[in-house]
Amino acid sequence: MSLKGRDVISIRDLSRDEIEEILRAAKRMIPYAEGRKSSHALEDRLVTLAFFEPSTRTRLSFETEVQRLGGRCVTISDPSASSMRKGESLHDTIRMLSSYGDGIILRHPNEGAARLAALASDKPVINAGDGAGQHPTQTLLDLATMQEAFGTLSGLKVVFLGDLKFGRTVHSLAHALSVFGAEIVLSAPSTLGLPAEVREHLDDAGARVTEVDQVHSAVRDADVLYVTRIQKERFADEAEYAKVAGSYRIDNAVLAGAKSRLIVMHPLPRTGEIAPEVDGTPHAAYFRQAFLGVPVRMALLSLILTGRAG
Amino acid sequence: MRELKITPIKNGTVIDHIGNGLALEVLRIIGIRELDKDSTVSVALHVRSQKLGWKDIVKVENMELSPRKVNAIALIAPTATISIIRDFKVREKRAVDLPDRIVGVVRCPNPNCITNQHEPVESEFEVARRRPVVLRCSYCDRLVDEFLTHLA
Q1: Which of A266, A271, A272 is nearest to A289 (CA)?
Q2: Is A107 in the active site?
Q3: Of A66, A115, A291, B93, which sits most exposed with the smallest number of CB within 10 A?
């Protein structure tokens, strides 16, 4: 089994074995991600970052990771200055870019753009987010965080809290967790529940899924509490947003009855969902989670571009 | 006097067992304007059927359906059967069958899907469920269970 040359568009493209291989490689990458060791894994490799919508954090993160591995990158970060402004299709732009470098990392405002890019490119494409669609490296780093904390992904009880309707990270992660046999508990404001199609998909996959109104009781025997932000931009009017915003907040009082090993995760940025007082507790895993994105993406880049990692 | 509701055809296609009221949609898929001007198209609406209770029938002279059109018919009229007539005889008869992958037949209902952005690609769906039919966009994952308004 080799991931060399593979496109990574959706977490569903990866088998359980492949996900485990990436997570093992990510663990080996940690000293390189921290700068304690240096790597030349991507020496002589040129990666193209094609960012067709602004995302400074994701872009900087990928640029950092390519350079930590000794590779080089060229970046399109201003689509208005590119040939697409002149009416060139994404298909043709990607086809052209694929002849320049050894791989493409794509961020695009339209759902399905990464799948199209993978068809147009003869070099591997990594999806760094397409519209409200997939963001597989986020899912991988979420899994890496749980794997690091518990040494396994099987049998974990994971409570999802917040916007389960629009939060794409939740949909992809819930799918991946179902592959590993985790137990999934959903807690959302009534207007922001998991879409029926996602729920159906989980049920079809044989996932153990339950829904609760009150997060307090669910937290008691949970291993992971995964909190998401309510995205203001998803609401048509301010009043609707105000109604649900602030309807849940995790603080030390909520966590008082939790297992000592419970970890609290969040894809960040947070707004008010997790009180700053939680940061100082052993439960807080969200900053570690954000950091683990670096070794995870380094592992993925290395495996895809060279077939090896670490 | 013998009542002849629909005349036999020498060469062409008979689409039978179309769900009641769906014949006009089937005609839309066939694209009757593209037909040879000498071809007769017969349509029977609301015909007694043992299998379905009521059904529609479409007969088209001098035409055999492309696989793409058969796929579109399979989506909106899954009970239909297609008979190929040559020299007044039924040469081939089969139920419409939905393939696992459907290309260029249905538009993705997600306006933000890349296939709706003037890219040089055809829409593509995989069958997520067969009874009732639910398709999943191969690009954006959007599920579609209503096809009449989304035919490409």
Answers
A1: A266
A2: yes
A3: B93
| H helix and E strand count, chain B | 2, 9
- CATH fold of A137-290 reads Rossmann fold (3.40.50)
Q: Least CB-CB distance to A133: which of B120, B140, B143?
A: B140
- Tell me how long chain B is: 152
Domain A11-134+293-306 indexed as CATH 3.10.150.10: no
What contacts A162, CB < 8 A, 6 or more positions away? A170, A188, A192, A227, A228, A229, A230, A248, A273
pLDDT digits (tens, 9 = 90+) for A22-47: 999 999 999 999 999 999 999 999 99
* Within a domain: B114: yes
Ranges for all domains in chain A classified under CATH 3.40.50.1370 = 11-134+293-306, 137-290
User: pLDDT of B4-54, one tens digit each?
Assistant: 567 788 999 999 999 999 999 999 898 877 777 788 889 999 999 998 899
Which amino acid belongs to residue A20? E
Q: Which residues contact A252 (CB under 8 A, 6 or more apart)?
A: A275, A277, A278, A281
A135 is catalytic: yes
Residue B7 lies in a domain: no
Token couple for A226: 């995964």
Residue type, A90: L
**Three-state helix/strand/coil letters over A74-124:** EEECCHHHCHHHHCCCHHHHHHHHHCCCCEEEEEECCECHHHHHHHHCCCC
Distance CA B2, CA A60 (A): 81
**CA pair distance A185, A77, nearest whole angstrom:** 38
B82, B53: one domain = yes
Global ipTM: 0.88
Tokens found for residue A258? 């939790």
pLDDT at site B4: 56
Q: Do B112 and A197 touch (CB under 8 A)?
A: no
Q: What's the CA gap between B30 and B16, in Å, rounded?
A: 14
In which domain, by residue range, is B135 found?
101-150
Residue whose pair of structure tokens reads 């780093």 in the numeric block: A141
